[in-house]
Amino acid sequence: MSVLTEQQDYRSGVRAWLRDHAPEPADGLDANAVLRRAKDFQAALYQAGYAGITWPKDVGGQGLGTAEAQIFSDEAAEHELPSGPFIIGMGMCGPTLVDLGTPEQKSRYLPKLLSGEEIWCQLFSEPGAGSDVASLQAKAVRTDDGWVFNGQKVWTTNAQWADYGAVLARTDPDRTKHAGITMFIVDMHAPGVTVRPLRDMTGRAPFNEVYFDDVHLAADSVIGEVNQGWAAAVTMLGHERVSIGASRRPRSNPLEFASLVELARAAGVAGEPGARARLAHLYAHERALELFNVRMRQETAAGNPPGARGSVAKLAGAMLQRRAIEVAGDLAGADAAAWEPDNTRGPELALGINSAPAASIAGGTNEIQRGIIGERILGLPKEPQVDRDVPFRELKVGTQRT
Hints:
402 residues; alpha+beta; Butyryl-Coa Dehydrogenase, subunit A, domain 1; Butyryl-CoA Dehydrogenase, subunit A, domain 2; four-stranded antiparallel sheet; 8 strands; 44% helix
């Protein structure tokens, strides 16, 4: 059987399974119902062999290639899958454990992530350490049986649902700010962990602030090596940027090309040259990003990880969101700000427009991505960093003033 035939058969299987098992869109569910729905669907994905498609078999994955992953992504875009609670774990934390986790960590955590039993979050940003993550002040102090962790994290997606998190902590303030950091696995249900929601301009609370008060971290909870957390963070951020850049919104998303074409038709402007030109530019951007992500997946499968090129995908994805907002506003006009009660498209479009700007911040701002691209891909000179060789305890960074 040829490779093409095998891929066609795989696509047919994915399409049939999603047709039979993808749940219908559901609005107005409470948080518990949303979580139960997501866990049930993730468990079904796992049982069907569609969870962790490219992950190694020995950690519960399918051990398949990027072609199969792309096929599933393409077919999944035809549905509104309830995968939100698992996005961080599947796209960022899980792949980092695949790369850096001990055999015991992999066997303990990855199968339960894949099967939907446990949810993960990522805990990097702090009130005084956003784009400059290395300025983080949350600290872990070594004890006889592990570590004691104190600090605050912010903008944490899915912390309200998470069972475990990958957290960065300062473990040696006498080292430079990039050198004295360690990444840990933290139990989000442990005593001393407090999760509080953060509401944004959409009216929803997709993010959280998390407080850690004398939280115990086990000795075997270190991801990678002690005081080598920056390298682990770079690994996870690489997965995060690729994941964000490669994510496919459902075709029913109000800012997706097909939805905007329908919007143009409903507004009676689909035949106008200006509207057609804007839609054509949007489609070209969207398609170019899809093909770029296909190439990165293929290169990764061939043993050439994307590295800093993940920032290209992340930046392109954020710029695509911004372009989609502009096109949506042009096409909808006043209907993007106010609508009749029976207009179901209006609230969806307004939510999409208010949500999209976060893409230029989450996972590292556009400015940070441009800096990475300039330095690590184009070979441009690094920006001056006068504090790079100074011990962290001597710095006045973020909210640290003494």
